[in-house]
Amino acid sequence: MELDLKRHPPETTVIAIAGEMDMYNSHELKQVVADLFANGRGPLILDFSELKYIDSSGVSVLIFVFTQARKAGIGLWYANVHGTVRKVIELTSLLNFFPIVDSVETALKLAAES
Amino acid sequence: MQIDTRATTGGVTVIRVAGDMDLYNSSRLKDLIVSLWNKGERRIVLNLAELSYIDSSGIGVLLYIYTSGQKRNATVWYAGVNGSVLKVITLTKLLGFLPMTETVEEAIERTREAAAKTDEKPKQLGVLIDDASPLLQTTGMYHKTFHIDFPQIRRLSNLIAQQAPPEVREFNMLEQQISELIKNGVKHGNRNDKEKALDIWFSFSAGHAHLIVKDEGPGFRELERWNEFYRKKIECYRNQDFEQMMNYLAFRTNESDDHDGGNALFAAVEYWNEGVVFSNERNKVGVKRTFE
């Protein structure tokens, strides 16, 4: 799994997640997001366009990010959720639950409006 | 379009669809019903009394629900169709083809009659305990004993998934589901102890994947509590009650650690569409999926 953080002024962060997110590495994303939330309240967008695989540990990190953002009132969007990753989220009955949008552009627009 | 779901006694689920059903929203109904089927529901009544508009994509979904339901041995009744929706159904020559009743009560009655006739047992929601289940019979399956710990889980899952024929699509999905079972056995069962055996049986064809995983642990003690938890979660999801659903995202036990998602089994009971069955000892799990 590779994480690529980009800042979009004024204060939105986009994290592109690439590769496979599983029981061996999903805690890395958890740590990055926890640090981010500890240091600010700017909106967060997770971009899944290059994520090929996720397992239940990965899903639990997505749940963690979602509940933390909600508690702190931080705008959060999951963009480009597709393929196996979408299927796993769907099977876990979280598809309508997570704030999923079609693209990073849409998410940035929503973040700017919030 | 507004969708509300309520379950009645006798395993009939009534779904009220109100407003406009068109190109932009009709797939929502389809997704909901497919997910109910995947959870084992077999008796659905659609209350369409307050549906005021339908277009061809909506009709397509109604038709899909009917034909696909037949293939799955699931009954669907369309209740209270009226006005312009009735007109469109008539114009598309589906009157008399789609099973319709005037009222919801009548549809529930018809559903029960049909169920009594076929004498089907409603499939239980969740996981089962049943040594006699065909899902736990190992005859004719390939078997191997492994002694592995945590770092080797994905590699082994990959090797096993590769035994499936290429006709089985969604390789990643299959591998992911196998890895969850193996992870349970290795981590929660054998506690990463390589001295302990992990027995795996599997058989694959273009039409099915069948797996049995047995560990040397104490077994899934909290199975009943999990089933209860799962049913509550499903109910929240059905009612789209996301506030309440926040309480049912992760199943925790005294032994859960930070890395346990507590959600793997939710997806497993959806993916393994023939069921997830534990042995009476609860340290052996059989799962099966059939592919269309």
Radius of gyration of chain A: 13 Å
Helix-strand pattern of chain A: EEHEEHEHEH
Average pLDDT number of chain A: 95
Mean pLDDT value of chain B:
91
Assess the beta-strand content of chain B as a share of residues.
15-25%
Distance separating the two termini of chain A:
30 Å
Number of strands of chain B: 12
Uncertain segments of chain B: none
Explain what you see.
The complex is a heterodimer of chains A (114) and B (292). By secondary structure, chain A is an alpha/beta fold. Helix content of chain A is 44%, strand content 27%. In chain A, strands 1, 2, 3, 4, 5 and 6 form a six-stranded mixed β-sheet that branches. In chain A, helix 1 links the parallel strand 2 and strand 3. The longest helix of chain A has 17 residues. Chain A is globular. In chain A, 41% of the residues are buried. The mean pLDDT of chain A is 95. In chain B, the strands form two sheets. In chain B, strands 1, 2, 3, 4, 5 and 6 form a six-stranded mixed β-sheet that branches. A six-stranded mixed β-sheet of chain B has the order 7-11-12-10-9-8, covered by helices on one side. Chain B contains nine helices and twelve strands. Helix content of chain B is 37%, strand content 22%. At the A-B interface, strand 4, helix 2 and helix 3 of A face helix 6, helix 7 and helix 9 of B.
How do the helices and strands line up, and which of them pair or pack?
The complex is a heterodimer of chains A (114) and B (292).
Chain A: E1 2-8, E2 12-21, H1 26-39, E3 44-47, E4 51-54, H2 56-72, E5 76-79, H3 83-91, E6 100-101, H4 104-113
Parallel strand pairs in A: 2-3, 2-4, 3-5, 5-6
Antiparallel strand pairs in A: 1-2
Chain B: E1 2-8, E2 12-21, H1 26-38, E3 43-47, E4 51-54, H2 56-71, E5 75-79, H3 83-91, E6 100-101, H4 104-118, E7 128-129, E8 142-146, H5 153-161, H6 171-189, E9 198-204, E10 208-214, H7 223-238, H8 242-245, H9 264-271, E11 275-278, E12 284-290
Parallel strand pairs in B: 2-3, 2-4, 3-5, 5-6, 7-11
Antiparallel strand pairs in B: 1-2, 8-9, 9-10, 10-12, 11-12
Helix pairs in contact in B: 1-2, 5-6
